[in-house]
Amino acid sequence: MVSVRTAALVTLLGQYAQAILPIHLKGDRFIRPASPTSEADDNNAFFVIGIDYQPGGSSAYDGRNGRDVLSDEELCARDAAVFQQLGVNTIRIYSLNPDLNHDKCMTILNNAGIYVILDVNSGNYGESLNRADPSGSYNEDYLRRVFKFIDAFKNYPNVLGFFAGNEIINDERNYAEINPQYIRAVQRDIKQYIEKHANRKIPVGYSAAQVLELQKPTLNYLQCNSKDGTTEDEDLEDSRSDFFGLNTYKWCSSSHNWQTSGYAEMNQTYADTIIPLIFSEYGCNQRTPRTFEETTDGLYGGLTHSFSGGLIYEYSNEGNNYGLVEIEHNGNIRYRKDFEHLQQRYRSLKIPQIKESLLEDKLFICSDEKVGDKRFGTKDFKIPEQPKGIADMIKDGAKGSNTGSILSNYAGPTTFRYTIYDSDNKVVPATVSYDPANFQNSLGTVVSVSAPSSTQSEPASSSKNAAALPTYLAKCGISLLLVSLASLL
């Protein structure tokens, strides 16, 4: 007879061996494990090939109406099919309701091999830092909502990371002076909450506005983790960004090249970055349809030395002419020429193979000189204290009503009632493809586990996975007291 403790251990093995494998960090790269038992020599850097996703735009989000972009499983299946046709591996979502259940949509995305980067904030009042009044908006009510958001999504293995803020610092007024320390404070609080309540380290980052003179100072301020440049400071490490996103629209289709776009200069500017760096928004639309030379010739060309991919803005057309698709009133999808051009570009990408074993974690000194902008409010790199009650909330939990998880016995839809058309009005035969390697199968099922689009590994027995699990969990920051299986039987 198998004891409860044995069953619990094997269940944990099943969760990490039989679902999409969580991304972890090493140096300035995201890392996707080759398998749950893989070593650093087996693992390669993960490049984000993605799009920004918020159908209806930010104005369509309403936390009171009982729905958001991940609450309808058939819409999620429809869009997952489009993601697969486009060739993306990651989407970014700006606004979600932490009180809603997202298990079906997150399971669809997981099983389809799609990672997500989630903004913890929304545009609603009290649900983000007020850039004009960061000290007043950094309060218990705001952080409670953030922590509830973490609870809602922390158990999904396909959550690549959380953005703690988006475009808070810009060139208006004194925002570069008064906001930076509060961004670090929110990152600190989120990371402490994750450490206490999640079963793995989930990266926490920041997405910066396209204010060229402030982007590099913002990165340097948020990535620094050492007071003297020789030793890591625990408090600074606790509050720094784990990854960083740039919103940039410098390279416009058919108008720029590697030199005139500033990409060559950017390659030098960001060469000393010590955390993963992505374009969190890009895709200039001065000329349409966009042809996206900045992908093959830029971000996934010369910039791969410093950057780890990016997210094209945006999925659906919301009146600003950035959309890759039109969503019709009946829910049908119509590809724009932009979609087909980007699809061709993504299909021709040549992603470099960078082994995890060649990477190392580094230090970046926190100094005014390194930040390099006098307007920046470094305040000797002191971080605001947590509001009253936050330490207890981090300890005891936010006590939200919703904690999501991947569904183990859910067969997501492969078809849907919506029709997808190409730009010539021809029907696109589209179904969602689910890689069995991404499934969270029933207890006891043995599978070959691989990352999407990679070669499958040898089938591994439960005992082999049990022996290798601590190494894998350690890479993801998961603590485990492992007792010999033999002693539990």
Automatic annotation (TrEMBL):
Subcellular localization, as worded in the UniProt entry: Cell envelope; Cell membrane; Membrane
Keywords (A to Z) from UniProt: Cell wall biogenesis/degradation, Disulfide bond, Glycoprotein, GPI-anchor, Lipoprotein, Membrane, Signal, Transferase
InterPro entries found in the cross-reference section: GH, Glucanosyltransferase
Source organism superkingdom: Eukaryota
Bilayer topology term: Lipid-anchor; GPI-anchor
GO cellular component: fungal-type cell wall; plasma membrane; side of membrane
Enzyme class: transferase
Pfam families referenced in this protein's UniProt entry, alphabetically: Glyco_hydro_72
Record-listed E.C. numbers: 2.4.1.-
Main location: other
One MF term in the entry's GO annotations: transferase activity
GO BP annotations, alphabetical order: fungal-type cell wall (1->3)-beta-D-glucan biosynthetic process; fungal-type cell wall organization
Alphabetized SUPFAM superfamilies for the sequence: (Trans)glycosidases
Record family assignment: Belongs to the glycosyl hydrolase 72 family.
Job of this protein: Splits internally a 1,3-beta-glucan molecule and transfers the newly generated reducing end (the donor) to the non-reducing end of another 1,3-beta-glucan molecule (the acceptor) forming a 1,3-beta linkage, resulting in the elongation of 1,3-beta-glucan chains in the cell wall.
PANTHER family per record: 1,3-BETA-GLUCANOSYLTRANSFERASE GAS1, 1,3-BETA-GLUCANOSYLTRANSFERASE GAS3-RELATED
Protein name per UniProt: 1,3-beta-glucanosyltransferase
Organism the protein comes from: Eremothecium gossypii (strain ATCC 10895 / CBS 109.51 / FGSC 9923 / NRRL Y-1056) (Yeast)
